[in-house]
UniProtKB/TrEMBL annotation:
It comes from the Bacteria. It comes from Desulfosporosinus acidiphilus (strain DSM 22704 / JCM 16185 / SJ4). Keywords: Plasmid. This is ATPase involved in chromosome partitioning. InterPro entries: P-loop_NTPase.
Length: 277
């Protein structure tokens, strides 16, 4: 199975929930594998949702401390809990990747982030990246260059589909056609946007359909400290299981164009250079 997966979307159709539920299932189904979820859009307000289904990190440091740290309310040692563990899956970690959001606080070092990512990358069998339309251009180029597979998430909405088509054409022009997989999120059979319409509009076929889950249901899952994927009978979970069955048939990419660590260093230098100009 390919190691580096990127979940990209020019819109916001629930890709974070897709990433985390997928990572949860992968870690649950293969407890011997280390799974890392890196969210490049992990903005400060988003942490509140993730705190609800996460637990204490190493030592006495809690995720509430991490939340306060990123909000600038207190000064603590980030190295103690830069990654966020799930309560019942020690082989699953979340790594916040929004360097711009973390940078203003003096004890949050970009060097430390890259150091941790390198360590986790070297010990992880599968890495799931997630990035949306607001991700820094250099980070997006890193994902495009280094990922074995690129999953383009969209939803049955006219504007979303047009933005998605533009993104797909851009990736095809960069030679990534064979590595693209289209994931349709929030699908409703009664939607006015039919699958036939989507197939004619977009240049690649739909790889996986994930059924719609209401915003209220998402919120309930967060408040109840649960992931939807914990419910084996939920249609959302069944769709994710089907997705993983398809991915199990994809041969693992043996060679990567450039070492990931080298690209990360280049990305970091690019960001710093752009800030100084």
């Amino acid at each position: 199975m390919p190691k580096l997966w990127s979940i990209l979307s020019p819109v916001s159709p629930g890709k974070t929930a897709f990433q985390l539920n997928l990572a949860y299932l992968m870690a649950k189904m293969s407890p011997e594998k280390q799974v890392l979820a890196v969210d490049f859009n992990f903005l400060k307000p988003d942490l509140a949702a993730f705190l609800d289904f996460s637990v204490e990190s190493s030592g006495t440091k809690t995720l509430v401390d991490l939340y306060n740290l990123l909000l600038g309310y207190q000064t603590i040692v980030l190295e103690d809990f830069l990654t966020i563990p799930f309560n019942d899956l020690p082989n699953l970690r979340i790594l916040p990747g929004d360097l711009e959001a973390m940078n203003p606080f003096e004890n949050v070092s970009r060097d430390l982030w890259f150091k941790f990512f390198k360590q986790l990358r070297d010990t992880s069998e599968v890495i799931l990246f997630e990035a949306g339309r607001n991700v820094h251009h250099s980070a997006l180029q890193f994902l495009i260059a280094e990922s074995d597979l690129l999953f383009i998430c969209t939803e049955p909405d006219p504007l979303a589909l047009l933005h998605t088509r533009s993104l797909i054409h851009s990736l095809i022009s960069q030679g990534r056609l064979e590595d693209l997989r289209l994931v349709l999120l929030r699908y409703r059979p009664e939607s006015a946007i039919t699958l036939d319409y989507i197939s004619k509009l977009l240049p690649i076929p739909v790889h996986t359909i994930i059924p719609n889950v209401s915003d209220r249901e998402y919120q309930k899952q967060f408040l109840d400290a649960q992931l939807i994927a914990k419910n084996d009978k939920h249609p959302y979970t069944k769709s994710l299981m089907g997705f993983l069955d398809k991915m199990a048939e994809v041969p693992k990419v043996q060679e990567v164009k450039k070492p990931v660590w080298k690209t990360l260093l280049t990305t970091r230098k690019f960001i710093r250079k752009s800030q100084n100009t």
